[in-house]
Amino acid sequence: MQKIITEDLGLISYAEAWEYQQKLFDEALTKKIAGxxxxxxxxxxxxxxxxxxxxxxxxxxxxxxxxxxxxxGVEYFHIDRGGDITYHGPGQLVVYPIFDLNSFDIxxxxxxxxxxxxxxxxLAEHGxxxxxxxxxxxxxxxxxxxxxxxxxxxxxxxxxxxxMHGLALNVNTDLSYFSLMNPCGFIEKGVTSIEKELTNGSxxxxxxxxxVNELFIEIFN
Length: 221
Prior knowledge:
Helices cover 29% and strands 28% of the residues. The protein contains 5 helices and 11 strands; from the N terminus they run βαββαβββαβββββαα.
């Protein structure tokens, strides 16, 4: 069994978390190139309001100017992960695995599938049926229906099979912020959260964090 070291960063600015991720990523990459063992780390956090655009994303999916974003207290970053545009904010669980995929004997495609499996299984335990998109990433509800909606976004970067960035699960998220953009580049699909899908309302974030951590350990080993 591969050891996974978990760290909860709490509510942290996107820039600070990105810098910390990059530091861990660079250290892991240096160790791997030197033939040394890489410690697999799992970072949990929430961010203040921020919109991020992936390296292959389209800025026209942002529906207002950056000046208007600032007025609304929303930061904006163009970053080096895959995927298009997404929102992070309080009530959303963001998970950044700094993993050496070789230690799990998997490639990037299987890694993405395992990230999705963690969330699909978590949601199933709360009575929410979800699925992955065949030609995309993330976790969806009613994907083939008229009310298709995304509950978890996934965007990663890897080098020599060392990963950074990760997933963002809407738990008790204020979904109104997604109206500032076309989420993940989709115009005709919506977004949702665990809170919105459950009849009993909001759910404890620590409960979700603990179970996601357990599922990472189970599914990646």
